[in-house]
Amino acid sequence: MSGDWSRYWCSPRPGLEAMHAHFERHTYHRHSHETYSFGITDDGRQAFTCRGAGHTSTAGMVLAFNPDDPHDGRAADELGFTYRIVHIGPELVSGALAGFAGRAAGLPLFAEPVVHDPVLAGGLGRLHAALLGGAPALVADELLDAVIPDLVRRAALSGPAARGPRFRAGSRGAADVAGQVAELLEDDYRTDHTADSLAAVSGSSRFTVYRAFRAAYGMAPSDYQRQVRLRVARGLLSRGTPIADAAAETGFADQSHLNRWFVRWYGITPGVYRRAAR
């Protein structure tokens, strides 16, 4: 029997969420977050792919994902892994860095998804404990404002992060094709598009669309559309929308269909997220 468990927490203000979990059998589907996501592996070994390479995080290591940074995740062995993760919106990162001397303008970019730094792990652990432990808001804010500059100073590149396509899209034309398809999937996310309809909107072949999109966004167009649907569903759930209604409004076949993909993406059920957000 699986020993999987998870706890999820959402701040009353947007852009700050946290989870503590242990997974033995759960496997994350390839996905990304709109936030920066910083994790700490407490125990065990977590394996994942990110930015075209495989990685393993063990006890004490820090995970650092940029916004829209596709990755997956799973236990590296049958013993599973326990980890903590804090999701921090770009606007909170920008606010904490306001007036921070000696860094380039714009949002930071973390080049390595796994960082071995006990100081950063300690700071993130204290922030995570405060968030899930119900610490006073001022205490949590002070820890957040201390952790973010530390993360940037010790682990980020000097240049700003770029939003949108983050991968090698080849030619400028290929990047344009991927961007046109992404715009369609974001604007018309409820429609069950076909490979031919994506090719038509971009004026390219089906093969060109698929190759350009994977290169630019790190996932297939079908996964990108599903992710858009899930993000919209999260917003609806956070406002108290019933799960069945959120499923219908975002193009899922039914509540169980939304539930299945929500778990594969986020490691928790829509019900758990809705209660945490409310």
TrEMBL record:
SUPFAM superfamilies registered for this protein in UniProt: Homeodomain-like (SSF46689), Regulatory protein AraC (SSF51215)
InterPro entries xrefs: AraC-bd, AraC_XylS_family_regulators, Homeodomain-like_sf, HTH-like, HTH_AraC, HTH_AraC-typ_CS
The protein's name: AraC family transcriptional regulator
Pfam families on file: AraC_binding, HTH_18
Ranges for domain HTH araC/xylS-type: 179-276
Domain of life: Bacteria
UniProtKB keywords: Activator, DNA-binding, Transcription, Transcription regulation
